[in-house]
Automatic annotation (TrEMBL):
InterPro entries: Rieske_2Fe-2S (IPR017941), Rieske_2Fe-2S_sf (IPR036922). Keywords: 2Fe-2S, Iron, Iron-sulfur, Metal-binding. This is Rieske (2Fe-2S) protein. PROSITE patterns: RIESKE. PANTHER family: PTHR40261, RIESKE DOMAIN-CONTAINING PROTEIN.
Length: 120
């Protein structure tokens, strides 16, 4: 396990891992190459999947309130029109954009925090 403090050059944390309930999700703001975006962070133990908080159906946020998502049986359900996405790969398996994907964003868990990669 990596216990050394993050180097001075490490990108700022998006959030602490323990701010995301295990099996749950939250939304954070991040500055990506394309500009500022809201990200969905989905936690499974020590692993975090991240996606842009933009539904491929109509381009709306997926949360029903800021950082609050509908999660059921390994899926994430868009609060706007009910598109249902696999949490593990972002594939829409039911609803109006079936077959499309959420856009994945690479994140890493280091020192108890969720971060963008160093080279982001
Ligand atoms: S905007 Fe998400 S299902 Fe329509």
């Amino acid at each position: 396990m990596d216990t050394a403090p993050p180097p001075e050059s490490a990108p700022p944390a998006l959030c602490r891992l323990d701010e995301i309930p295990d099996g749950g999700a939250t939304a954070v703001d991040a500055v990506l190459a394309d500009g500022a975006e809201s990200l969905i962070l989905l936690r499974h133990g020590e692993q975090v999947h991240a996606y842009l908080n933009i539904c491929p159906h109509a381009g709306r946020r997926l949360d029903y309130a800021p950082g609050k998502f509908l999660l059921k049986n390994g899926t994430l359900i868009c609060a706007v029109h009910g598109a249902t996405f696999n949490q593990a790969d972002g594939l829409c398996i039911a609803g109006p954009c079936r077959g499309e994907h959420l856009r994945a964003v690479e994140v890493r868990v280091r020192h108890g925090a969720v971060r963008l990669p160093d080279d982001a």
